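Trying the structure run again after the queue cleared.
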Amino acid sequence: MPTTKSNGAELYFEVHGQGEPLLLIMGLSHNSLSWFRTLPELAKHYKVIIFDNRGCGKSETPTTPYSIELMAEDARAVLDAAEVDSAHVYGISMGGMIAQRLTLLYPERVKSLVLGCTTAGGPNHVQPPMEVSMQMMARANSQATPEEMAWEAAPILYSSSFIETKRDLIAEDIKKRIEIPTSPQGYMLQLQACLGHNTDEELSQIKCPTLVIHGDADVLVPYPNGQNLANKIPNAEFITVPGAGHIYTSEAAELVNNKLLEFLGSQK
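Done. Tokens:
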């Protein structure tokens, strides 16, 4: 099991496939297992690097405060450990925040950038409904089991139509998600990092080819946040996933994987 050290945390990572390097960065409280609907297709064409952010999965959970900048340094350390000078980078949700900061800190390490269901943060961030924010904060003190909490969060993460018609796919997601449950402490430390994220005034500095993907039924990171990213990053492409909630990687896996491969292929 390959690991690397970064700023006091041992980080777990894996490498799959061959070809140009592609780094995947997962979102809040989810570990690398959550890429299971994306990884197989991408690994047919690319050398795909996945890892567990500090605070979840098989990586350590330091108790000192986290920041998106610190987690971007973690991502850079994973690239170093995988002996990759530069890579295509795809981050979703919190992972998209980390990907933005990685690109701003180390532009030479990022060949192209894909930002999914994420935000620039800052004063122009469009907040979710109050009840969604309150539920996200309450999860750190919940006495429910990991499976119960995952089902409670489903209305935040998936569109109502997907919940009504595809509960079997949500159950598959949850089974993967709770194989290695994220501790309340790890969850809160990651959430606090997200709340401090702000690249809004720096987006014009991103010069690499960029694709922004967002579901228009996302209630956790509302759709206008994706529009804002695409408007402010020079020459960014924008893909709307119609009717999809936050976890569009499950709601529209085939559509998104095809669009992603099309974008990455055009960068060669």
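The chain has a mean pLDDT of 96. Worth checking whether this holds up in the mutant runs.
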